[in-house]
């Protein structure tokens, strides 16, 4: 049983459980989501703290929605430096923020929180993660036909970037069509029904999955030759396909994590160290 003022750290295979005592770390950080079945964020950030010689810790906080408000209020008093926000709270977190950046106001989603003088300041680093991952994987969106699956928190950041890249056309498919309409209107996209997916997917140069559903087996054989299937998830079993480039969300995860880390510590971590920590596997 934990004593007051102690929080648990994720347990790695073969490692004894440890606790971080309140005040022992200069930078106390973590990620809030539900459920947190698999997250590489602790490995990324804790490796960055170690490589830079900073006193810091990062751990997962699996928080049911009914407890979100209570947890956020208490975190202000627990000497936290910052938080990452993941599904399903990237849009819901906004109601608890004291201030947020113009980008967060624009897209309506935050994945990073800086806690300063008990004030919650929201930022979105998913946009940098997605943008830079396109560069690393040599994916060009300009004058391309782009299909985005999803309209949630991460999809909003991706739609923001897609719009800036100047695609030939931009379509959104979401399980609930009504939820996609405001996003499409903001970024000059068109909305189609999920029931049309298999009929239209072959028309697109780039298909981006920004949902928590694994669409790979459903659509991969319907994609046209030389197209790109980009999945923001990094835990799905995305196999290589001879005619389609398949890219997972690991690069995006690492880069957005690096930007979040820099917001909390004012130091950009070595991305190569973060990549090595989780043994990134790119699918090209």
Automatic annotation (TrEMBL):
Biological process (GO) annotations? amino acid biosynthetic process; aromatic amino acid family biosynthetic process; chorismate biosynthetic process; shikimate metabolic process
Tell me the route in metabolism or biology where this protein functions: Metabolic intermediate biosynthesis; chorismate biosynthesis; chorismate from D-erythrose 4-phosphate and phosphoenolpyruvate: step 4/7
Query: Which enzyme class, named as a word?
Result: oxidoreductase
User: Where, in this chain's numbering, is shikimate bound?
Assistant: 39-41, 86, 111, 126, 256
Question: The organism sits in which domain of life?
Answer: Bacteria
Domain named Shikimate dehydrogenase substrate binding N-terminal is located at 31-113
The residues covered by the SDH C-terminal domain are 249-279
Keyword Oxidoreductase assigned to the entry: answer is yes
> What's an example of a GO molecular-function annotation for this chain?
shikimate 3-dehydrogenase (NADP+) activity
Q: Name one GO cellular component term.
A: cytosol
Looking up Pfam families in the UniProt record yields:
SDH_C (PF18317), Shikimate_DH (PF01488), Shikimate_dh_N (PF08501)
Amino acids binding NADP(+) = 150-154, 223, 249
Q: Which InterPro entries match?
A: Aminoacid_DH-like_N_sf (IPR046346), NAD(P)-bd_dom_sf (IPR036291), SDH_C (IPR041121), Shikimate_DH (IPR011342), Shikimate_DH-bd_N (IPR013708), Shikimate_DH_fam (IPR022893), Shikm_DH/Glu-tRNA_Rdtase (IPR006151)
- Describe the location of the Quinate/shikimate 5-dehydrogenase/glutamyl-tRNA reductase domain by residue ranges: 139-212
Q: What are the positions of the active site?
A: 90
- Signal peptide boundaries: none
- What does the UniProt keyword field contain? Amino-acid biosynthesis, Aromatic amino acid biosynthesis, NADP, Oxidoreductase
Catalyzed reactions per annotation: shikimate + NADP(+) = 3-dehydroshikimate + NADPH + H(+)
- Per its database record, what is this protein's job? Involved in the biosynthesis of the chorismate, which leads to the biosynthesis of aromatic amino acids. Catalyzes the reversible NADPH linked reduction of 3-dehydroshikimate (DHSA) to yield shikimate (SA).
| Family listed | Belongs to the shikimate dehydrogenase family.
Name the PANTHER family for this protein: BIFUNCTIONAL 3-DEHYDROQUINATE DEHYDRATASE_SHIKIMATE DEHYDROGENASE, CHLOROPLASTIC (PTHR21089:SF1), SHIKIMATE DEHYDROGENASE (PTHR21089)
Complex and partners: Homodimer.
Specify the protein name. Shikimate dehydrogenase (NADP(+))
According to its UniProt entry, this protein's organism is candidate division WOR-3 bacterium
Q: Which gene encodes it?
A: aroE
């Amino acid at each position: 049983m934990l004593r007051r003022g102690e929080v648990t750290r994720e347990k790695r295979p073969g490692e004894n459980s440890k606790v971080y005592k309140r005040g022992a770390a200069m930078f106390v950080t973590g990620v809030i989501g539900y459920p947190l079945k698999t997250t590489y964020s602790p490995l990324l950030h804790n490796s960055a703290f170690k490589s830079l010689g900073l006193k810091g810790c990062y751990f997962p906080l699996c928080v049911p929605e009914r407890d979100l408000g209570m947890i956020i209020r208490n975190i202000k008093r627990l000497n936290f430096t910052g938080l990452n926000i993941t599904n399903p709270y990237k849009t819901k977190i906004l109601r608890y923020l004291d201030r947020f950046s113009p980008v967060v106001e624009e897209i309506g989603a935050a994945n990073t929180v800086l806690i300063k003088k008990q004030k919650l300041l929201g930022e979105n680093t998913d946009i940098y993660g997605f943008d830079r991952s396109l560069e690393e994987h040599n994916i060009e969106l300009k004058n391309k036909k782009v299909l985005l699956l999803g309209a949630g928190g991460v999809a909003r950041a991706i739609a923001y970037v897609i719009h800036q890249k100047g695609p030939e056309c931009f379509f959104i498919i979401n399980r609930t069509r009504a939820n996609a309409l405001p996003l499409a209107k903001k970024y000059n996209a068109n909305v189609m029904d999920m029931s049309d997916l298999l009929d239209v997917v072959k028309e697109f140069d780039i298909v981006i999955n920004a949902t928590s559903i694994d669409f790979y087996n459903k659509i991969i054989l319907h994609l046209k030759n030389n197209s790109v299937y980009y999945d923001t998830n990094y835990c799905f079993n995305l196999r290589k396909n001879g005619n389609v480039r398949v890219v997972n969300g690991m690069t995006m995860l690492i880069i957005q994590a690096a930007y979040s880390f820099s917001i909390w510590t004012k130091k950009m971590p070595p991305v190569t160290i973060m990549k090595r920590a989780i043994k990134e596997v790119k699918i090209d």
